[in-house]
Sequence to fold (152 residues):
Amino acid sequence: MSFKECRAVPKKVPEKRRKRKAPSSKTRGSISKTEYNRMIEVFGCRCMMCGDPRIEAHHVRFRSQGGRGKWRNLAPLCHCCHQAVHQNRALAERLMAVREDMFGKWYWADEYDLYENGLIKEPLKENFEDFMRREENEEVVRHCTGKEIGGW
Fold:
C-alpha cells in the first residue's frame, strides 16, 4: 500500500455521545400522580408524625436544595406537621437523615442527577431504579415502614 493509499483510508471517528438535556428544576421537583401513589403505598396514607389522615406530600430534601419529586424524597405529612418541618430546621434534618439511612445519600435525586454525576450510563427510569434498589437498606426500610419494598 502506497503512502497515498494509506492517507485515503478514512479514519474511524468515535461516535460522540450526546448528553441528554435534563428537564427544568421546576419540572423535576413536581410530584406526579405515580410518585404520589408510590409514596402512599410505601409510607401509608397518614401523617408520618401524628397519624392525621389529611396529608400533603412533603419534599424531604427541599426543592430549593435540589430535591426532586420522586417517592423516596416524599413524606406524607398533615398540614400542621408540614409547616413544623419547614419552620424547624432540626426536624427537617432529622427527616433527611432517616431517608438517607433508608435509601442512601441519593434518596432525593432523579435519573438526571445520577447521570450527571456518572452513576448511571443513561438517564433512564430503569437505570435509576436499578441504582436506587442497590442503595436501599432493606432492613431499615422494613423497620421504618413495616413493609417490604424491593421487587415491586
Remarks:
- The mean pLDDT is 86.
